[in-house]
């Protein structure tokens, strides 16, 4: 075992717990020893917390119980004292109504767990969608040296010699099932084959997007974002991350030293360049907010107009995360964007982003496109504005039918999700392929929790007629694995009194993505008349976390953080021991 280095242990934060010769410190030391720990194990060494979101109800993190041991090995190798600390797990597939309701709760837990304990550095073990922003937000607010270890994508799905992608192929084959084209046996076969291993969705969903964003912002080791969860490389990554966490403690390299407006912009450009999830926008605004950096949708729009999409990965492209990894992964993609990125930003690896990606080469130009042959020259995801979304809304244009990006049609409005579910597949439904499906009361307050309902299903009678995409509008989010012409995050949401609450079936709606416009063809007088005659708002939960959430959550364009958590935090542990 490495002996404590020449660094001064009195500089360590944990020394304030374990160092002094007083009664409280005696208590801290004696109770640590109650676990069988000896002086040599922890004294004068950085205490490195392994914040583990393992849970048997989060299948994406099912390898984390073992992987934590490999992080531990790395911490020991570098002379640290590892302590594993479980924190809330947000497993996308089993939580209702949505993990997004709980992102801020995990962020609060991470912040407070770090702040109140003798922790010198932390390894943040997350991966499944909201765990990534939640852990980063918490670590930023605690401002204790932290390094992120992504869960890694699962293996590619295989069924009848076809490659299956998480989420995306569920939507695709469910449409075929509703249309009557897929038998029970095949549907069961897909169920058995689509999730072949531990790990996160292996499409460019929110998990893969946020892992890439985290790496580009400098908060994980180089290449970490794409390593498949069950590859031997992922075991090694865990150990390397543990080793590096000890250095971070000695160097006292904190999130506030790494994350700046420039590194956030690197994250944003990366999410665009990989054709990433629309959810990244909401999360990045919230992450920036914790740093006291105001990031707006207009800022996102600016970058969207200049950032090419080079990652040809589903649902916006053709390949999956395993292919991306084999093609060179994120460093190879970023190396093709060095003229756009802020390459002098620092990273947890101790080098700049530019140094980190220098020399990274793409092995397959089909998966990682070249600059002169991009998936899209710019605008993979776009901000739209207009009288239906005064504070903006977004559309992932590369995952939409290009023919629908300019469209005008009559609205077909559903007041809420249960109403939509009850009516959508009714053969009598008055709908055509030109209709604009609208779902409201599906935003941060209305649902509540801002669920992934924004890829409204295509009505059965249209599916049977061969329709596979149409224009859909909502104040909801959609899964990063979803696709289609879905306008999302309409702000303000209907439950907060946004204009979406006043749309009626039959109103004419126009979207014009090339001109970044959404228009509701109803006069201002008529809008005023409807506003006078309609009772707006929603019933909010009266108790518990739901109450706290409803009172303090911000709208989509502000990142949906709690208003009282925005801005820089003093970051210190309570002063009285
Ligand atoms: Fe966990 Fe997709 S369900 S990453
Ligand atoms: Mg998802």
UniProtKB/TrEMBL annotation:
Keyword field: Iron, Iron-sulfur, Lyase, Metal-binding
One Pfam family cited in the UniProt record for this chain: ILV_EDD_C
InterPro entries on file: Dihydro-acid_dehy_C, DiOHA_6PGluconate_deHydtase_CS, ILV_EDD_C, ILV_EDD_N, IlvD/EDD_N, Sugar_Degrad_Dehydratases
Presence of keyword Nucleotide-binding: no
EC assignment: 4.2.1.25
Dihydroxy-acid/6-phosphogluconate dehydratase C-terminal domain residues: 366-560
Coiled-coil intervals, chain numbering: none
Molecular function terms from GO: L-arabinonate dehydratase activity
Signal peptide: none
Domain Dihydroxy-acid/6-phosphogluconate dehydratase N-terminal: 45-355
Superkingdom field: Bacteria
Similarity section: Belongs to the IlvD/Edd family.
Protein name according to UniProt: L-arabonate dehydratase
């Amino acid at each position: 075992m490495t002996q404590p280095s020449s660094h001064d242990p009195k500089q360590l934060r944990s020394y304030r717990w374990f160092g002094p010769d007083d009664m409280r410190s005696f208590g801290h030391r004696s109770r640590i020893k109650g676990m069988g720990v000896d002086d040599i194990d922890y004294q004068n060494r950085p205490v490195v917390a392994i914040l583990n979101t393992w849970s048997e109800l989060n299948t994406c993190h099912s390898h984390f119980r073992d992987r934590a041991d490999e992080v531990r090995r790395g911490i020991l190798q570098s002379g640290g004292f590892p302590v594993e600390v479980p924190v809330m797990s947000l497993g996308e597939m089993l939580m209702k109504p949505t993990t997004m309701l709980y992102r801020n709760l995990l962020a609060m837990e991470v912040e407070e767990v770090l702040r109140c304990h003798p922790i010198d550095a932390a390894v943040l073990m997350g991966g499944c969608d909201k765990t990534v922003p939640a852990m980063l937000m918490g670590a930023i607010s605690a401002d204790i040296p932290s390094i992120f270890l992504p869960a890694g994508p699962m293996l590619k799905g295989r069924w009848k010699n076809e490659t299956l992608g998480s989420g995306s192929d569920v939507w695709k084959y469910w449409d075929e099932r509703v249309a009557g084209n897929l038998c029970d046996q095949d549907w069961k076969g897909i169920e058995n084959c689509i999730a072949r291993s531990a790990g996160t969705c292996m499409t460019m969903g929110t998990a893969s997007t946020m892992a890439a964003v985290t790496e580009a912002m400098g908060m994980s080791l180089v290449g970490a974002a794409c390593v498949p969860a069950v590859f031997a490389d992922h075991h090694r990554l865990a150990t390397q991350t543990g080793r590096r966490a000890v250095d971070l403690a000695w160097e006292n390299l904190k999130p506030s030293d790494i994350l700046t407006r420039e590194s956030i912009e690197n994250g944003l450009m990366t999410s665009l360049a990989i054709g990433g999830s629309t959810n990244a926008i909401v999360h990045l605004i919230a992450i920036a907010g914790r740093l006291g950096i105001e990031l707006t949708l207009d800022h996102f729009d600016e970058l969207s107009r200049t950032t090419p999409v080079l990652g040809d990965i589903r649902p916006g492209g053709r390949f999956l995360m395993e292919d991306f990894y084999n093609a060179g992964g994120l460093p190879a993609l970023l190396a093709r964007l060095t003229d756009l990125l802020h390459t002098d930003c620092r990273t947890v690896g101790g080098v700049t982003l530019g140094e980190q990606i220098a020399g990274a080469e793409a092995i397959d130009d089909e998966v990682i496109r070249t600059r002169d042959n991009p998936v899209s020259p710019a605008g993979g995801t776009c901000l739209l504005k207009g009288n239906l979304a005064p504070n903006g809304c977004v559309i992932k244009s590369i995952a939409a039918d290009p023919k629908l990006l300019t469209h005008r049609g009559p609205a077909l409005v559903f007041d809420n999700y249960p109403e939509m579910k009850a009516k959508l597949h009714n053969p009598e439904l008055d709908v055509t392929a030109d209709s604009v499906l609208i779902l409201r009361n599906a935003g941060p307050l209305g649902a509540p929790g801002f669920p992934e309902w924004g890829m409204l299903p295509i009505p059965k009678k249209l599916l049977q007629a061969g329709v596979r995409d149409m224009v859909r509008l909502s104040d909801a989010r959609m899964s990063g694995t979803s696709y289609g012409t879905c306008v999302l995050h309409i702000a303000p949401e209907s439950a907060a009194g946004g204009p979406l609450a006043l749309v009626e079936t039959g109103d004419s709606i126009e979207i014009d993505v090339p001109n970044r416009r959404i228009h509701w063809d109803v006069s201002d007088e008529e809008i005023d008349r409807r506003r006078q005659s309609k009772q707006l708002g929603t019933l909010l939960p009266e108790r518990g976390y739901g109450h706290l959430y409803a009172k303090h959550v911000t709208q989509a364009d502000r990142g949906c953080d709690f208003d009282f958590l925005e801005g820089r935090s003093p970051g210190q542990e309570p002063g009285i021991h």
